Amino acid sequence: MIDELIVKNLALIAHARLSFAPGLTVLTGETGAGKTALISALKLIMGERAHASSLRFDSESLEVSARLYIDPNDDAQDTTVFRSLSKDKKTRVMISGSIASVQELKQRIAPFLDLCGQHAQQQLLNANTHASLLDAFIGKDAFEALARYRTQFARVEEVKAALVRTRDLRKTSQEKLDALNYMLERTRALDPKVDEYEELLSRTKQAESARDLYLCAHDAYEALVGEGGASDRIDTATARLQAYTNIAPQLAEYVSTLSDCASYVRDVSRALSAFWEHIDLNAHDLERMQERIAALQDLMRAYGPTLSDVLSKAEAAKTYISRHENSDEIERALEEGLVEEEHTLKRYADELNELRAENSSSFEEALNQVLRDLRMANASISLTQTLLPQKLWTSNGPSRVELLFRPGKAAAPLPFAQIASGGEMSRVMLAIKVILGARDPQTTFVFDEVDAGVGGETATLLAKMLYRLSAHHQVIVVTHLAQVAVYADTHYKVSKTTDDLPKTNITALSETQRVTEIARMLSGDVSDLACAHAQAMLTEAAATKAAATKAHDARA
Length: 556
Hints:
Helix content: 55-70%
Radius of gyration: 42 Å
Distance between the termini: 23 Å
Structural class: alpha/beta
Strand order of the largest sheet: 2-1-4-5-6-7
């Protein structure tokens, strides 16, 4: 259910905020006032494509925000939607404060809103969706039967795919098998481990540096304590200075410092000696590791790029060869299993078909009764159910369910795309929504131009039908009919200024203002006579609504 809609800089709308309640909301106004722009705003939050041409002429970007309650029974958990489009066609989408995509709007928001405009009747135009309408009419039994069928259908498709792979496996050339066996032999001969290559590289690097480290430590040792090294020179300098300390006592401090230096030199030389003694200079081990690395690199070049890839491909080759060797036995087992799975699928298909066939006449009759109530007595809907060959079964069922439309008694029933007008399809969609009632999973219906070509008594019947639908769903209607407007629970007037920069204004009407607006809709003026007529219609509609509420409470 839509709770609130905010629109900025869309078409002629500079800024509009609409609050929606459960029940029936109507939008009325002169042609060209901007009612269609509100439908465009709803399309944007449902994930439809945005066009830069939709921006208000004096703005840099448009914005649409909405707060919705996906579960109408939980008014504590709302979902907020934000979408913007700039002149340079950059778009931004957020759902409940998190960055999202247009695709997420289609997946998360669109399923709960139904735009039932003359140009949005894809469900009627696409015969593949007609079975879902019948299933929704049947209810729980159909959904459970369809779920069993779909689960089994998927199982059959899995077995068929496995059978195709097995039969293809049997056709494998000897050349391919030889190549797979050769790869296995090479891999088995080396028997590599997953992390072995990286470990060998690290150890080899250390081994290759061992000689350099040894020479470095030895040379430093010689420089410190070797013949003529730092130790000898310090001793010489210390002896020379010591000889003259009785003449220059201050030299004693230098002698002490040099003695400390000599001690440090001896400490470092001993540490260097211990360091090089622990360096491993085993040339054989280094050569062995280098050879192993080269062999692994050859294997990775052939079947890599990584050692992990090599091991994965080897395991896959092992499985492939094993399945090839046992392909006859596997194929027989799959064929036998397929027979059993298809037998089960046929049983579920028969159950689904029978359930649909048992309810199709009731669906037809209920639909045609609503059409008669809408004074479309000469028009009718017929439902055909044609069992398909098993190879043409789909996840939607084993038969083709299609609704056909006959505009007159003498006309032949044909697909909607071939014969029905936009207004006729709108009213048929309304009829479908009415007979589905509370079973329809969509929570909000938006009807645009459902009243096209309707007047007189039919308009009143159409209004009552929309009000009847609003007992179970939130219904939003863009209408030019006063007969529809008087049944509104919430009434908005859409108007347009006539100044140099035209702007659409949207106003929530009070009861007094509704009288004036309905009078305008009836006669184009707000004379006393027109207002009296409008007030009478509002009073009559209120009485009808009260009687309907009382009858509903009595049934409850």
